[in-house]
Fold this protein.
Amino acid sequence: MNATKVNWEIPSLCVITGASRGLGRVLSLSLIKKLPRNSIIALIARSENGLKETKQLIKECGKETQVITAPMDLNTVSATEVEQLLAKLCQCVESSPVKIDQAFLIHNAGTIGDISRHASSFKDSDEITRYFNLNFNSAVVLTSVFLEKILKYKTKFRHIINISSLASQKAVNGWALYCSGKAARNMYFKVLAQEDPSLNVICYGPGPLETDMMKDILEHAFPEVRAFIQKLSNEGKVLKCETTVARLFTVLEEGKFKSGNYVDVFEKL
Ligand SMILES: NC(=O)c1ccc[n+]([C@@H]2O[C@H](COP(=O)([O-])OP(=O)(O)OC[C@H]3O[C@@H](n4cnc5c(N)ncnc54)[C@H](OP(=O)(O)O)[C@@H]3O)[C@@H](O)[C@H]2O)c1
């Protein structure tokens, strides 16, 4: 069965992680441009300044929107901290002049990890735990609290967007933690979608992007990986965040995927 199509005309509640820069900032701005006035958006990341800049850019769109910045380190975040943020959002929903009938949760925050090492070199389990705290655990905790809190409003549509990567499908030398983290997240969201057919869940691979993460990759990846990405860049296949967000929105509008599935930016549906 195909996913539920996103209706951009419904005032919505949005929660997005990694909104201080890169893809998360562009996604936040693009969402608010698409959605009607009176929508509510919570921006999560560590950098308070980065979040304020994103908020300012949203304000400059000129659309009446409630923007909540939530500086938070998802490496160490607890359910209590997330509950406090959600309680604040619930107040916004309750005092809204219009019915908020659609909710988006976007898991975008992520790190590439140490990509200069072979898969057999990870002996420190604390290092692995730290990586998974941010890149897997925090997404599970945030999803669980979000769904619990949002349930009482009986929002007609609930969309969960897991920003994934082709690396969740394909092994890349040196990317053991990144590939494993993205694959684990995809499977968590697949199970979630299967258990609750009322949710609309997508694991979206945005393609190679011109962001800080890409700079990190070009600096630290194995030579063969760097050469491959350089080739993609020369062929114009490293995308602007705006390009991949436009594709994601089309995919969401058309709803031609099965909820919980992985969809890549370059895939024809
Ligand atoms: N760039 C690519 O080529 C590419 C390709 C495929 C998939 N992706 C995926 O796309 C998503 C966005 O990547 P990007 O390229 O925009 O990366 P980026 O420019 O490095 O931005 C990462 C975002 O995650 C946030 N973040 C990092 N650590 C955090 C923490 N401990 N707590 C809270 N927030 C944290 C950062 O904010 P703060 O530093 O302010 O905390 C920032 O907003 C990631 O999930 C990535 O895996 C990227």
